[in-house]
Design a protein that fits this description.
single chain; 474 residues; alpha/beta; TIM Barrel; M1 Pyruvate Kinase, Domain 3; Pyruvate Kinase, Chain: A, domain 1; 3 domains; eight-stranded parallel β-barrel; six-stranded mixed β-sheet; 23% strand; elongated
Amino acid sequence: MTERIRRHRRTKILATLGPASSTPEMLQQLFLAGADVFRLNFSHGAHADHAARIEMIRALEKKFHRPIGILADVQGPKLRVGQFQSGRVQLQAGQTFTLDMNPSPGDTRRVCLPHPEIMEAADIGATLLLDDGKLRLRVMRKLGDQLITEVMNGGVLSDRKGVNIPDVVLPIPALTKKDLRDLEFVLPLGIDYIGLSFVQRPEDVIQAKEIADGRALVMTKLEKPQALDNLDAILDLSDAVMVARGDLGVELPPEDVPSAQKRIIRAAQLRGLPVVVATQMLESMITAPAPTRAEASDVATAVFDGADAVMLSAESAAGQYPRESVNMMDRIIARVERDEDWRLGIDAKRPEPERSSADAIAAAACQVARTIGAQAIVAFTASGSTAMRVAREKPDCPVIGLTTSVTVARRLAAVWGVHASLAKEVHSMTQAVENALKIARLEGFAKKGEEIVVVAGVPFGQPGTTNALRVARV
C-alpha cells in the first residue's frame, strides 16, 4: 500500500518545473521532499513539454492519493531592446543614447526599442531600467519615434535585454497574444491557478478571470509599482496573490521591497486570499547544496509573516540541487513553525472576522479547538471557501478540507494549514461527523479518544452556507 502523505507544517511549498525536474523520478522526489504545488513557467518550454509535466503530476497524484496543485504562470508583456551589430555594447555614464523604432542592429549610440507604447507613454524625465536594472537611462528629449536619453548608470548592454519603466503606466494588457495562446492550450488540461504577470490595473485581472471562466483561479503576481498603487482594487478581484520580488525589486528601490512584501501579505490576509512569496528565496542553491544564512532567514521571514506559501524558481527548475532545495525549504518552514515567537506573531496578526455567520463559525471553530485541545478542524467545503475561512484564522491545529471535488482539493493545496482530502457526498450533519472522524483517523490526525471540531454548511452541497459546528470524539 502506498504511504499516505501528510505535511507536518502549515506553510506550503511551490516548486517550479524545468529541465532539472521533468522526469517522473525527480517529480516524485520533489513531492516527497515537500512540494505541494508545481509551477509551469510558460516563459520557457514548448506546449508539449508542459503537457507531459501535467500528465506526470496527475500520475503522481493518483499514486499517492494526494491532491497536487498546478500553477500555469504565463509570461506577460516582455519589453526588450533589439540587437546590436557586435552582440553587445559598453555604455558610459553621462553619454547620450537613443532608443528608436529602426529595426537595424544598434551600436554605442542607439538601439531599436520595438514598443510604440513606450515611445508614446514615456515623458521627459522618465527612467528606463535595462537588463534587470543594471543600466539606468533618463529620457531627455522625444523626437517622433525616438527617445533621446542620458545614461545615468552605465555598463554592458547586449541583445534582447529587458526594459522596465517604473514611472509609467503602459497602455498594454497583462495578457499578450502568446499568453492567450498558452491559456487556450493549457486550461483544458486541468490546471488550478493562472499566474498573471505584470499586472498594472484591475482590468488586467478582470480579463484573465473572463478567460479562465471558472476553469482555474487567478493568482495575481504583484511585480509593478503601478499594481501597488491599485492594490486594494486588484486584490478585491483576485483569487490568490504572489509577491513576485524579481521584477518588483527591479522597479522599486531595494529598500522598499521588504515593506511592500509585508503590505501585500497583510492586505491578502485581510481578504482571506492565499499569498505566495516568490523569487530568489534560496538562489544560491542553484549551484550549491546549501543556502546562505541570509536566504534561510528570508524564507523564515515569509513564514513569520504568515504567507500561505513560499516558492522555488530556478532552484528547482534548472539548478543542480532541486530535491535538496525543496527539502531545505521544508526544513526551514518546520523549524520556524516550532518557534514560540512564530505562534505569538501569527496570533497578533489575525484579522478580525467579517460580520457574517460563516466567519463567526470559522472563528468559533478555532477558539473551540484551542480550548479543548482538538487534534484537527475538519471543514466540509463545496467550493473551498469554508476551509479557506478557517485557514484565515490560523488555528493551532491542522485544517482538514473535505470536499467531493478534486478541483477544489487541488486548489486548497496552496492554502495555509489545509490538508485537502476527497470525501463522499453527505446529506446530514450526522453523516458529516462520521466521515470526519473516519478521515481524521485514517489520515493520521487523531487517535481513539481524541477530539476534532467539525464545521459545515447546511444544507450540504451549497457553497457559502457555513453555519454548523460540532465537537466529536474519535
